[in-house]
Amino acid sequence: MAGKISNTPATYTPSPTSQNKKRPSTVTGSDWVRPDGRGLHQCRPAFLRTGAVNSASGSAYAEFGNTKVIVSVFGPRESKKAMMYSDIGRLNCNVSYTSFATPIRGQASEGKDLSSMLHKALEGAIILESFPKTTVDVFALVLESGGSDLPVVISCASLALSDAGIRLYDIVASVSMSCLGKNLVIDPVSEEESYQDGSLMITCMPSRNEVTQMTVTGEWSTPKIHEAMQLCLDACWKLGKIMRSCLKEAVSAPEE
Question: Polar residues composition bias: which ranges (predicted)?
Fold first, then answer.
């Protein structure tokens, strides 16, 4: 897939290496094996299902390795008076973690930042004009944090929005990558993220070939970041096919 970026917001933050665990000396070697045995450019198997929460307008469950996420969508519903004269709808996003999502309680404390990033990733894909004067609320709950949490949340939220019948320009798929010395590893697990030199996350609409969000941390050489971007775009395209298959199966499945 030949990916392109147009009008893409990019976020650059300092490298988190000062807070990372000591990296194994074999990590940069050619014989290094990833914690879960995958190849460097091999994503985790993805299990996706819609209709996970009966009380919601739409919902989805996603499981990528040990990362497990459930997303509920409510609305469109009547907005507050301040929005009554708006010609477009409003999107609200909230990301939270269960108390048992990480091995150490309270370790997952990025809910507020993740909520904002989820909003930025989804907003450009939603046809807000299709539900004027109303709001759509997206609630994502990370049941288990196994690495690459935000990309899984974003992809799962896109499925939940589709399940709720919210009009989208395209589904939204997201994939991240870690830089470990000279190695680029896609869809990293928590252990790999803990000693990465830098990270890159791309969120895109595969069918439209458009990136809705790109986040970069750490220091990257130009060739490395170009390689990482293309690998992520290719993975997003493949994930998009899996997501569409999930939606088609949900539509064709007989009602109980």
Answer: 1-29
